[in-house]
Amino acid sequence: QVLLVESGGGLVQAGGSLRLSCAASGNTFSIDTMGWYRQAPGKQREFVASMTRGGSTHYADSVKGRFTISRDNAKNTVSLQMGSLKSEDTAVYYCGAGHGGNWYSRDYWGQGTQVTVSS
Predict the structure, then answer these.
(1) How far apart are the first and last CA of the chain?
(2) Each residue of 99-112: pLDDT tens digit?
(3) How far apart are CA 15 and CA 106, in angstroms?
(4) Phi, psi (5° rounding) for residue 40?
(5) Of all residues in the chain, what percent carry a pLDDT higher than 90?
(6) What are the strands of the beta sheet with 18-26, ordered from one edge?
(7) What pLDDT is recorded for position 10?
């Protein structure tokens, strides 16, 4: 099993920045892909960004150029630097991790952290 714990959410004004972090523990040796997803009220959970252990990244079109994912394999952490935030970025952000090396690989979820962007 793998435990994922997110941190860094909060309230920010539109145009501002916020950094999310996720720490993985447990059987992390088998994890390849780590990433971020989000779920806005009344909407389905959607992919935001992911990064494989080898460093390949993938972003949703809606966040390209504004969000940057990074990862520290030695510390089993993944971060999401969010910039130029918009009200539509308001959501609960979830960390995900998967055994596969595909951008969409996800076998575990974190508990989520709220990000609220005020306009």
Answers:
(1) 40
(2) 998 999 999 999 99
(3) 30
(4) -85, 160
(5) 97
(6) 2-7, 18-26, 77-82, 67-72
(7) 97
- Give the integer Cα–Cα distance in Å for 19 and 10: 10
Write down the mean pLDDT value for the chain. 97
| Coil, strand or helix at 97 | strand
Pairing mode, if any, of strands 91-98 and 108-109? antiparallel
As beta bridge partners, residue 93 has: 38, 113
Query: Contact, 24 vs 34, CB < 8 A?
Result: yes
Q: How many residues does the chain have?
A: 119
Query: Any idea which residue has 């575990």 for tokens?
Result: 108
Partnered with residue 38 across adjacent β-strands are 46, 93
The tokens for 74 are 């030695």
